[in-house]
Amino acid sequence: xxxxxxxxxxxxxxxxxxxxxxxxxxxxxxxxxxxxxxxxxxxxxxxxxxxxxxxxxxxxxxxxxxxxxxxxxxxxxxxxxxxxxxxxxxxxxxxxxxxxxxxxxxxxxx
Amino acid sequence: xxxxxxxxxxxxxxxxxxxxxxxxxxxxxxxxxxxxxxxxxxxxxxxxxxxxxxxxxxxxxxxxxxxxxxxxxxxxxxxxxxxxxxxxxxxxxxxxxxxxxxxxxxxxxxxxxxxxxxxxxxxx
Lengths: 110, 124
Prior knowledge:
The structure holds 2 protein chains of 2 kinds. By secondary structure, chain A is mainly β. Chain A contains no helices and 9 strands. Helix content of chain B is 0%, strand content 49%. Chain B has no helices and 11 strands. In chain B, the strands form 2 sheets. In chain B, strands 2, 4, 5, 6, 9, 10 and 11 form a 7-stranded mixed beta sheet that branches. Chain B has a 4-stranded antiparallel beta sheet with strand order 1-3-8-7, with no helix packed on it. In chain B, strand 7 (69-74) and strand 8 form a beta hairpin. Chain B is globular, with a radius of gyration of 14 Å. At the A-B interface, strand 7 and strand 8 of A face strand 5 and strand 10 of B.
C-alpha cells in the first residue's frame, strides 16, 4: 500500500491528452514539492517534472504538472506510442521523515 | 552531464550483507547542496526509497529499513555506497543510485539523475 495514491492504469488514443492523478496528505503533497518520473520497460526512471510543475531541460513540453492542496496531476498532451510507460509521483513526507512514492500508473496508448 | 555507474554483486545469500557502489562522473559528490542515495524496485513492483546522504554527511534512511541500512561517501574516489545488512528474499530488487540537488532542503528536491540499476537477488 503506497503512501501516495495513483490509478493503476490509464489509456488514451494517440494525439489525445491524458492526466494521471496522485493523491496524498498534508504531510507530503500538501506541504512539499511533487516530482514525476517516467519508467520505460526495462529502464531506469527518468525525471519528468520537479517542484510541482517545472520541466527539466530536454523534457518535451507535452508533459506538464500541477498541484492543488494534497493532490497533484501529470498531464501528457499529443500522446505518442513512445509515451507508453509507467509513471510515478514522489514527495517528501514530513511525518515519516522520508521520501514516498505513488504505486505507479501504467499508460497505454491505444 | 552527470553520470552514475553502479557496481556490485547480483547475488547475495540470505542473512549476509548487500553492498553496492555508485561512481560519479562529470560531477563531484562534494558539490554544494547535493544529495546522493538509493531507491529500489522489487520485480514487477513500484519504487521504494532506501536512503539519502547529503554532501556534508547527514543521512536519511527509510523507516522500514532503519537499523539495517548505511549509506556513505568516498570523496577520494568520487563514490558513494550502500550497505544493507541481514538480507532476506524480501530485499530482492533492482537497486538504483540517484543524485538530487536542492538549495531549499531535501523536501524541495527530486531524483534528477539515476544509475543504470543493479538487480540484486537474495538466494542461497
